[in-house]
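Notes to self after the Tuesday call (sharing in case useful).
The group wants a holo model before anyone commits to mutagenesis around the pocket. I volunteered. Ligand is 2-(acetylamino)-2-deoxy-D-mannose. Logging inputs and output together so the record is complete.
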Amino acid sequence: MKKFEGLYTALVTPFDQDGKINDAVLQKLIEKNQAQGVKGFYVSGSTGESYLLSTDERKYLIDSVTEAVGGKGEVIVNIGMFATKHSIELARHAYSRNVSAISSVPPFYFPFTKNELVTYYEDLANAVDTPVIVYNIPKMSGIEFTLDDFDRLLANEKILGIKHTSYDLFQFQQLIEAYPDKSIFIGHDEIYLSALAAGAKAGIGSTYNIMADKFVKLDQCFAGNKKEEALKIQGEINCVVQALCKVGVFKGVKEILKMQGLDCGSCRKPFLPLNESQKIFLRETAEKNGLL
Ligand code: MN9
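Result:
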């Protein structure tokens, strides 16, 4: 069974002045992350503003990222939509571009039963010959999966893992212990070190866009048993995450990328642009933590 290890950047979706996907900046962003040591990319997730993109744009993004990455990294794509039929359409497109895995937030808004949600993932797994990663994000989807639910999901051999975007480290460690052959990604950057202590081998994060090098260093410190240094780096990361949370994480990541020379445009409306004092606050935070 394939096991994913390492850092996967949850890519922002760069837009140009006209609000179209900006391939040139996307390519540079991918190269910058690769140079810093990430293993691959998570496309069209929350950070990528998936639910603010049209289906055609999501297909275009898959094409653009897979082309830019070439063979030099792995690509995981969130193909989640509300109807199984639509998710499968995107999944087939991702499969045709040879991605490493597809992933999906559980369909939300309607109160589907757990049985319907498990069947949703099984249908995806049956539709394409690509591994499936469950995107568990209770805060946004409103759906809480229990260990029993995960037992049902992971019983399917094509469902290879979980993106665990939750602060529940108890459940995270239980999953790691119960499923040593599956890939359980930590999806919150501010608890990365704690997740390593709980046995994490892989992460997907939005802040890797702006500071993947810090996570690479953190991995090295953890492997080398340098506890103090590891804590110091996680502290810097958390100072940045706290600032991002204050202004809106995705808007903030795009703003810091702009300061780093990669203009990814603004997040799509209904998100509103940052104001001047938010920008100054982010610049100070980025400078203080060595991001500029
Ligand atoms: O992909 C991201 N999850 C969400 C992972 O944005 C929902 C994280 O990287 C968070 O943005 C980050 C801040 O909470 O941990």
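Two things stood out.
Residues 10, 45-47, 137, 165, 187-190, 204-207, 241, 249 surround 2-(acetylamino)-2-deoxy-D-mannose (CB under 6 Å).
Residues 6-227 form a domain with the TIM Barrel fold (CATH 3.20.20.70).
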